[in-house]
TrEMBL record:
Family annotation (PROSITE patterns): RESPONSE_REGULATORY
Gene Ontology biological-process entries: phosphorelay signal transduction system
Keywords: Phosphoprotein
Residues with the 4-aspartylphosphate modification: D67
Protein name from the UniProt record: Response regulatory domain-containing protein
Domain of life: Bacteria
Domain Response regulatory, first and last residues per copy: 7-134
Length: 149
């Protein structure tokens, strides 16, 4: 089996935010493939290889950048489901959201998120936050997805 570079699954319902995240990760020098899904259900389907992603074969490391406020299934529920399942409980999840309520931050860490990054409202600060995230993702080690089966 050919080893694959880290794939970043971006669960973000706001097209503008998704574009800015992807563009600024590239600008930070991160050349990894980014798969964009528009809601929590799509993220779960991708991870579980279900629905529209049933033909996807897990192969290599996968990391989830997860917004909280999304339609169908919100980010908190996605995180809860992933961490409650032994097949996905070690899956790295970085919350990337505009929600900076300390109670939400605490709740996400209690549910098992790997990190919590607040998307600033101001454009320049948003760009800088994503650039720094890109630098972090360039060095982080993530277990292979197919090692968790």
């Amino acid at each position: 089996m050919v080893e694959r570079e880290l794939v970043i699954l971006l669960a973000e319902d706001d097209e503008g935010h998704a574009y800015l995240v992807q563009q600024n990760l590239l600008d930070a020098g991160l050349a990894n493939m980014v798969v964009h899904v528009k809601d929590g259900q799509e993220a779960l389907d991708y991870i579980r290889c279900e629905g529209a992603y049933q033909a996807r074969m897990p192969n290599g490391p996968l990391l989830l950048l997860l917004d909280i406020n999304m339609p169908r299934v919100d980010g908190i529920e996605v995180l809860r489901q992933l961490k409650a399942n032994p097949k996905t409980d070690e899956f790295p999840v970085i919350m990337l959201t505009t929600t900076d309520d300390p109670r939400e931050v605490k709740r996400c860490y209690e549910l098992g998120c790997s990190s919590y990054v607040t998307k600033p409202v101001e454009y320049d600060r948003f760009v800088e936050a994503v650039r720094r995230l890109g630098l972090f993702l360039a060095i982080v080690k993530v277990p292979r997805e197919d090692d968790r089966a």
